[in-house]
Amino acid sequence: MQASWRADHDKLTFIACMPSSLASVKAGECDAPDRMIGDVNLFLSPADEDEEGCIGELELMIAPKDSRRQGYGRATILTFLHYIQLHLDGLLAEYKSKLGLDKMKLLQLKVKIGSKNDKSIKLFESLGFIKIGESPNYFGEFELVFEGFLDDERTRSLMDRYKVLDFREMQYHERVPLSAILH
Ligand SMILES: CC(C)(COP(=O)(O)OP(=O)(O)OC[C@H]1O[C@@H](n2cnc3c(N)ncnc32)[C@H](O)[C@@H]1OP(=O)(O)O)[C@@H](O)C(=O)NCCC(=O)NCCS
């Protein structure tokens, strides 16, 4: 399942780990079990009204209770939004090629949150997500959409405001399994 999530054309997923000041990212160090705190995902799906359009749905979790309320959730989703904006062309190219389409655009970024999950609703609203409708949907969830979701300037200014500094993309150095070396 992990392998399919890595390869699936309609998913983008990252594990959130405790901040680290290391110069390189090595598998098993920065993401050792005691450094993993959550995950953040994007799921792309076809838009009903436009064959060459898709909708992005976000998911966020900071799992350990003692890691919550320290800004990691907001930092994780802001960094993820910035990443999506930087890599949108590549993400859409992968998505459309699997569907055999020539063109594809992202029409909306949204999140679905249980109507009683006030803390999460507050988090997303603090970034400019806006509830669609006054009452929850059939599943008891509010849908919130991100206004100006392609505006990287805006995401950067939110990152400044919430002190999410030093964003850097780094190569992930996977450990080569011993069996691969031996063969
Ligand atoms: C929602 C969740 C991701 C928040 O993560 P977190 O790291 O604790 O959140 P942050 O510390 O970054 O908080 C950011 C903002 O969210 C809101 N918030 C977070 N926890 C809150 C709480 N316990 N009470 C009230 N507001 C809260 C606040 O507005 C907070 O801003 P502030 O600290 O400036 O007031 C985390 O609680 C979680 O994983 N919950 C379960 C999964 C979930 O609900 N995911 C969201 C739907 S996809």
Automatic annotation (TrEMBL):
Transmembrane segments: none annotated. It holds the Pfam family Acetyltransf_3. SUPFAM superfamilies: Acyl-CoA N-acyltransferases (Nat) (SSF55729). One of its GO terms (molecular function) is aminoacyl-tRNA ligase activity. InterPro entries: Acyl_CoA_acyltransferase, GNAT_dom, NAT9-like. Keywords: Acyltransferase, Aminoacyl-tRNA synthetase, Ligase, Transferase. The keyword Acyltransferase applies. Gene3D superfamilies: 3.40.630.30. Residues 31-129 form the N-acetyltransferase domain. The keyword Chaperone does not apply. Belongs to the acetyltransferase family. GNAT subfamily. This is Related to METHIONYL-TRNA SYNTHETASE, mitochondrial. It comes from Phialocephala subalpina.
